[in-house]
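User: I'm writing a short methods note and want a consistent example. For TerB family tellurite resistance protein, I'll paste the sequence; you return only the structure tokens, no commentary, since I'll be parsing the reply automatically.
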Amino acid sequence: MAGLKWIGATLGWSLGGPIGAIIGLAIGSLGDAMSDKGNLLGSGNPNTQQKQEPKYRSRPNYRTQQQRRAQTTSGDFEVSLLILASVVIKADGKQDQRELDFVRNKFVELYGKDRANKAFKLFKKVSNQSISTRDVSMQIQQMMDHSSRLQLLHFLFGIAKADGMVTDEEEDQIHSISNYLGISNRDYSSIKAMFYNSVDNAYTILEIDKSASVDQIKKAYRNMAKKYHPDRVEHLGEEHKKGAEDKFKQVQKAYEFIQKERGF
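Assistant:
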């Protein structure tokens, strides 16, 4: 099998640490030449390639952490998503075909059929491994910006809901991942509410109480629209910017629902 030069951006921090070990093992089982690891998952654009830092530090200082988060690439996000998706799918003790189809279809939507097919082959190899959710999530928390981590969480809920319902085991696993990712309970509840039907969901999505005033509602909408705006993940590539539109639309729908309910 030829080298997997299909992600479109060179991997950065995910070449090291627990994620690098998982991907390296998966690539090895696919028969790829490990000598090609420098461009393992992306040929990259010569105008946008960034210096790779394969070594993972468990306790980076604040300045280094912020600098590295700015270097997260589409490839870093994609392999992080692959690994966490495999964890959520196995959370209830089985791999439902509808959830597997959701992952594959989402990759087709984001990256196109050819790249999605290759990504899914890697995904299946990753799924066969025993993965430390804490170690992987902590690496992501230290290296990936907040907006990208929120996008990961939204995708994981989408996987869990693909078979029609989110089981308790899946929700517990996603909540655990969210905590390791350093996502606040309010942000977690906001994204979770996008996948459940409840009269209070619109308020939860905007991270406010039902007793909020009109001015508070308007302010919350502005804040959430900024937080979930697709431009916040434009550094991951146009494909992920499009994927972030789902969250943004949910915020708009929540605000419109409250506007209609409260009559303003």
